[in-house]
Amino acid sequence: MSSCGSKIWLLANLLLIAFIAASESVDYRLNLNVLPSLYNLTIGIRGDADNPGAIFDGEVKITLQTKHIDVYRITLHTDSIEIEDCWLYNATGDLVEHIVAARLIYEQETNKLTVPLAKAMTINQNYILHFKYTGKVRTDTAGLFAVSYVEEQTKKTKWVLLTEMQNINARRVFPCFDEPAIKAKFEVHIGRPSGFNAISNTKLIRTTNEGNNRFMDHFDMTPIMSTYLLAFVISGYRARGNTSEMAIYTRPEFYQYTEFSYSVAQRALPAFENIFQTSYKELGNELFQYATTPRFPHNSMENWGLVIFKDKVVLEEKGYTDGWSQKEFTIRNIVHENSHMWFGNSVTFKWWSYVWMQEGFARFYEFFMGHKLYPEHQLDQQLVIRKVQHVFSTDALNITQPMTSPENSIQSPADIDYKFGRVSFAKAACVIRMWRNAMGGDNFDKAIRSYLKKHHLGNVEPKDLFAQLKDHWPAKQNVNLDQFFSDFTEQPGYPMITVNISQENHLIGLRQKRFLSNPGDGSDPSLRYTIPITFATNLEPNFQNLTPHMYFDKVVDVALIYSKEPIDWIILNKQQSNYYRVFYDTPILRKIQEALSKDGHSSIAVENRAQLVNDLFNFASVGMIDYAEVFQFLEYLSKEVEYIPWFAAYDGLQDVVRRLTPQQLTHFEKYLRDITAAVYSKLGVFWSSEDNVLDVYNRDMQVAWLCKFKNSDCNRQVTFNFEGNLNKPSPDYRETFYCAAARSAGYDRLLDLYQMETNFNERDLLWKSVSCTRDYRRHYQNEILNSSTSVFQKTVGLAQMYQQNPDLITSIYLMITEDIELLADALGSWSKTADVLSNMADYFTTREQEKLFSDFIDKDSKLFGDSAVTLKTALSTVNKNVQWAEQRLGKLVNFLISRNGAAAVGLTMATTLLMMMSTVLSFLLKL
pTM of the prediction? Predict the structure, then answer.
């Protein structure tokens, strides 16, 4: 390196250090010298119901005081607000000072607004800081924003104005102290035109006529609460229920779709009042409302007394969106937001670094209370596959975070957004579940009641929760609770326990290490945890007692379990109730497989069957075992009929099977037919009103996989039932069933159904289904290239064709690229065309496909302009995918070839018998 280069390098680094230091010195937090107790807020909409306008008028009078001497400045938050004037009054209403807008000091980066005072504030004396201002009715979904919809009968455009204050968007609606720990009461007044009504967090007290077809709605004072919980909705909505106690507000034409959601709301609130032994009204608010919106940044938001949902969460249209999965979606969201009235609204975290203290509990109770209220959905079991195993994938990466972050590390808006992820929601729910199971349900419930009572209307940090948990923890459990709590909340990731057996099957040895999806990604592999150990054996197959047998202390290298009698098999972590994976030595794993293959699966819990499957796929993904061993273990599934293990199996299979070549898929198809023998025999392809919820979900999965991978009986039975039955399948199963039908003789009828359908959701479903056709050239030329189909539908239709028919991907690719300009014209963009090809290339599995793609890029990339880089990036991904498959799937392919070859004679006989039985059944059904 030359001396000149060294100087430039040194200067650049000094500038970088200075920039970082400057960034780190930015103070986003308020100094708390001045604190509010009441906001008297008036918001006025300028336009009318047909055009509410882009600007609103605001006025806020903030009652506040200081407990410090020499306070000459009041600093609070504001963002995207134009302050017109500012005054400071004393408690008796006398003007102390008029602060013209030009004197106000604003910092754009921190959103801090400083009001300089000529005279210091008097300690412990109330003042009223009065602002007049204007704000923006936004087009995004932050602060106060507007959304529109088309009224079904009149076809007129209707408007809804509503708020979303979380995380730090209250400052976009009014000047405020916009931090969760700075709580106050709110008195809200909404000025609106005729044709609108307004709702807010609390009861409507009165409405005054302001003249010129304008009205002012005045609302009762709120409990003391954080700014992010303030909400209002201005609309032409209609209410279901008692508007003084509990109601759901939505579009008038949607009234009939809220019956089920309202029934859930009526059950959820009393259930929480019972378990927490505090009524909702005792929290400080008499009113509980729900409102819907066509557009929102999240599924729902827990504003105190006015929960807002996306339409899709709580609306159920009979015959279209009233299936079991939709009901479950509604149940979980309503229960989740109900729990927030206690966790978050009454008891609030001190700072955003502790988001999990609200969201983790809400997610936990979403499943726990949801199961108590609606046990038919078996949400207690579903939590394992939908949250525990789901969040494991995130928590094993370098991008993961601890549940609790140091306060000083969460400062900027980006930092705050960072905390709203799977760890704060799903991992926290799983860790809370672990605590409850370890200490016992009764002890946990008592601890939570004490915690909620002690900190009502206050702000907390983790130590406040832990103090109550420790006070109610069973004394006989030998564990350092402070260490146990901090290991799983202040450290990222989770442990994996390795299990081996010795001394003629009397001694079980346990070792722990952190599980990482990519050990070389910079994550700290040395982290260790204090782990609750539960287990069952063939000698005592009790999977219900979740009290820890012991705790594996993080400072201990090996934990031992001794059995007087020799053990045949052992399963750790009963019901996967604790937050870790388990790796069994080969001899133990073989014995477990034998146990699973017996009638009743040797009483091994359904959650543990799913755990074994999920763990094995993840161990294979990091090279700890080969995929051939996983697939060999999955042979036990030939006797498995339960949804929970099958969900884990298909979740793991999808990424592996996606990398198999079309030739290799023929061997997988035979394998899949064998391992689904029992479940397919039980469920078949035809739906029944007698199905339980998880059977409905299970059939949907099985038929989706079996028909996709060309199971002849599956496709034949679907065709027979589709042609002979004009009734619609149940909403949960409709897309899968229609997709399977479209692959054969059902295409034309489904296309007719799609073209005649007027329901928006059903049209989308039918389009996806009809695009499963194997008559890909006809569908592409007549429908996808047709100008009447939207660009979004075109891209969805193309993806469906090759994703649902993986053996056709090369043929579909060649069809598209033989005249790529046709597709570009249909999509109206070379950029979108590049995205379509890039997505398709992610499903390429052979060097031949890679060569075809490479040749196309060499020949035609100039057509794509700047988007050619998308194609080149995709080509690199294809190379990595094919290389990974060549390196990792060789033994698996050999296993499939070997086991299918050895079973060929038996399989042929079984297939022939099955076909004969199907033919007889079809004949009898026609009689």
Answer: 0.93
